[in-house]
Amino acid sequence: AQSVTQLDSQVPVFEEAPVELRCNYSSSVSVYLFWYVQYPNQGLQLLLKYLSGSTLVKGINGFEAEFNKSQTSFHLRKPSVHISDTAEYFCAVVKAGFQKLVFGTGTRLLVSP
Amino acid sequence: GAGVSQSPSNKVTEKGKDVELRCDPISGHTALYWYRQSLGQGLEFLIYFQGNSAPDKSGLPSDRFSAERTGGSVSTLTIQRTQQEDSAVYLCASSLGGSMNTEAFFGQGTRLTVV
């Protein structure tokens, strides 16, 4: 079965600094990878997804992620964060051809002035 | 509707009571998913519907949990004889097709508190 590990439960960062949120997955078969964001008191929203093709995926709000098959990673990055990026970020994986989206435990990004 | 709608948004119930949580998916979305989000935990998969059938209900924690979907639309998650460990936010999502390579849209969730 596939699983997702988000090593950092919380990442504090200053405004305009770069940030990387780490995600590693385990699966013996092809997978699709996703990052979702959950703003305070709101539902989950898709940031970006990797299905196939280019390993660098660009999403909304200036975020991007890179799929690294050899390291089984899908880290999320942003070169310069804003206060409004403060939220919980979830990495998720699904086996190609299946429907069960498996989530990591989430990383809380705290952006301060 | 414009998005996935869940009701109620909050539910406080006494231990041992039954509760029903409702999900209205986006019109035309054939796939519907239930997840549970507990404090400090990730999102736990509960069940997946394709149309009215549930090909994967492997995530339901116990036989106290059941779900149904009617008319390929509204879904109800029922928890019988609630326990305190059932307290969590229950999230519903829907997507266009049966494959998760399409975007899943989430509702705001139902916060269940068992006292």
For the sheet with most strands of chain B, the description reads: 7 strands, mixed
Rounded to the nearest angstrom, the radius of gyration of chain B is 13 Å
Q: Which percent bin holds the helix content of chain A?
A: under 10%
Low-confidence stretches of chain B: none
Order of helices and strands of chain A: EEEEEEEEEEEE
DSSP E strands of chain B, number: 11
Greatest chain-chain contact: A-B, 25 and 28 residues
Q: How many beta-strand segments of chain A?
A: 12
The helix-and-strand class of chain B reads mainly beta
Distance between the termini of chain B: 33 Å
Report the C-alpha radius of gyration of chain A, rounded. 13 Å
General form of chain B: globular
Task: Walk me through this protein's architecture.
With 113 residues, chain A is mostly beta strands. Chain A has no helices and twelve strands. In chain A, the strands form three sheets. In chain A, strands 2, 5, 6, 10, 11 and 12 form a six-stranded mixed sheet that branches. Chain B is mainly β. Helices cover 0% and strands 50% of the residues of chain B. In chain B, the strands form two sheets. In chain B, strands 2, 4, 5, 6, 9, 10 and 11 form a seven-stranded mixed sheet that branches. In chain B, strands 1-3-8-7 form a four-stranded antiparallel sheet, with no helix packed on it. In chain B, a hairpin with a 2-residue loop joins strand 5 and strand 6. The radius of gyration of chain B is 13 Å and the shape is globular. Classes of the chains: A mainly beta (113), B mainly beta (115). The interface between A and B is medium-sized, with 25 and 28 residues.
